[in-house]
Amino acid sequence: MADWQKITGGITAPRGYQAAGITAGLKPSGLPDLALIFSEVEAIAAGVFTTSQVKAACVEYCRQRLQAKHSARAILCNAGQANAATGTQGYLDTLETALAVGQALNISSESVLVASTGVIGQRIKMDALRSGIPKVVAALSETGSDAAGGAIITTDLVTKSIALETTISERPVRIGGIAKGSGMIHPNMATMLAFVTCDAVVSPALWQQMLARAADRSFNSITVDGDTSTNDSLIALANGQSRTPAITELGAEAEKLEAMLTAVCQHLAKAIARDGEGATCLIEVEVTGAHDELSARQIAKTIAGSSLVKSAIFGRDPNWGRIAAAAGRAGVPFEQENLQIKLGNFLMLKNGQPLQFDRAAASAYLKKATAGAYLQQDTVLISVNVGNGHGSGKAWGCDLSYDYVRINAEYTT
User: Same domain, yes or no, for 258 and 381?
Assistant: First the structure.
């Protein structure tokens, strides 16, 4: 049983944080498009970013900031323009953004991190941003998580938010998070952004290590369409306002904090996969019997990302052969005679041998997901065993529908 409980408040649930989201005129739709997260004190900061060779200006900026200084107080995110592949001027726009936020908050610009999402190749609308920054600062609130979550989305149909609480050294410790993402999702740390706040006291090196491991078990284990964004950013702040003793090394308290951080990231990651562009269901793939966890996750993500598997699930076709083919090309050695595949409770392949199963009932199981991708119970479960190893891992994705092509064919038109 999890050693924490779900609470309300999202990214402002941890002590000492405020957030806001406003309409600054960055999106042509007129919807909210500028979000700000603010810690009342300097917070330890960690980040995991896209591994794409084409990186947005905000990614380069945040990487440099976090290498020079492992702390921050504010994260500003604009939606509408990705500010990726925008050359020198795009980077100068990011520097100006950080400076303007710092001045509006009366803090150093070095304590400001920046994220962007939207159309690649488009610079931020700086006139709108300049006028919007004082407004978003004025809107900061201890209950502003929902507003911030709504201001970072683009093609998302729903906002993504979570907050959890546990006890460390007899004091409550909270972690909250918001995220955006619906298409261009195949993180290698898509367009994917996630921001996490925590009120524990933790050393910079340990916080970065925790975040990297949590990312591998969450955001790096989801896929919607196989495309990695130029703007992927996962940023986490820990401001120490829980007043717990400092966590500086591995141990029981560090393990508890990391487990809760991973749970927050996994909730947000699954919400992104569930909200995949055009999706009608969430797919969860669990692989067991691999040599190690990394191998299991690699097989699971290959299956979850297979266009043929995703198309079959959308068509409610229990075609287990596509699952077997995807597992086989994942680049992980295993013996074919050990392969076992289950779809929900339907065992289809055992010890490498096909089994008789009720195809109509299996198709009906897949049809249960047609109610929509936002209900937690509407999840297609694929279980694969590849041997007798101790490695297990999960990945999440969604089905591939006609609407995915329509949404992306019309994205800039």
Answer: no
Rg (CA), the chain: 21
Q: Which residues pair with 19 in a beta bridge?
A: 37, 141
Q: How many domains is the chain partitioned into structurally?
A: 2
The residue range of the domain holding 33 is 5-274
Is 50 a catalytic site residue? no
Regarding whether 192 and 78 lie in a shared domain, the answer is yes
Whether 202 and 303 share a structural domain: no
Given a contact cutoff of 8 angstroms between Cβ atoms, the answer to whether 185 and 224 are in contact is yes
The rounded percent of the chain whose pLDDT value lies above 90 is 75
Q: Are 18 and 128 members of one domain? A: yes
* Residue ending a domain, choose from 254, 274, 294: 274
The pLDDT score that the predictor gives to residue 402 is 81
Closest CA to 286 of 401, 162, 363, 397: 397
Threshold 0.90, pTM exceeds: no
CATH of the domain at 368: 3.10.20.340
Q: With 70 as the cut, is the pLDDT of residue 305 above it?
A: yes
Q: Are 383 and 342 in contact (CB under 8 A)?
A: yes
| E-assigned strand segments in 281-405 | 282-290, 340-343, 346-350, 353-354, 379-385, 391-398
Residue 209 to residues 46, 164, 165, Cα–Cα distance (Å)? 9, 20, 21
Residue 171 shares a structural domain with residue 299: no
Report pLDDT digits (tens) over 131-181: 999 999 999 999 999 999 999 988 777 889 999 999 999 999 999 999 997
pLDDT at 279: 81
Determine the average pLDDT of the residues in 89-95.
96
pLDDT band at 375 (very low <50, low <70, confident <90, very high): very low
Are 268 and 287 in the same domain?
Answer: no
Distance from C-alpha of 141 to C-alpha of 126, rounded to nearest angstrom: 24
Of the residues 94, 155, 166, 191, only one is catalytic, namely: 191
User: Quick one: tokens of 389?
Assistant: 């190893």
Are both 201 and 245 inside the same structural domain? yes
CATH number at residue 214: 3.60.70.12
Residues forming a β-bridge with 167: 172
133 and 169 co-located in one domain: yes
Do 176 and 197 contact (CB within 8 A), yes or no?
A: yes
Closest CA to 160 of 296, 285, 270: 270
Residue 79 three-state SS:
strand
84 within 8 A of 44, measured Cβ to Cβ? no
Could you give phi then psi for residue 326, rounded to 5 degrees?
-65, -40
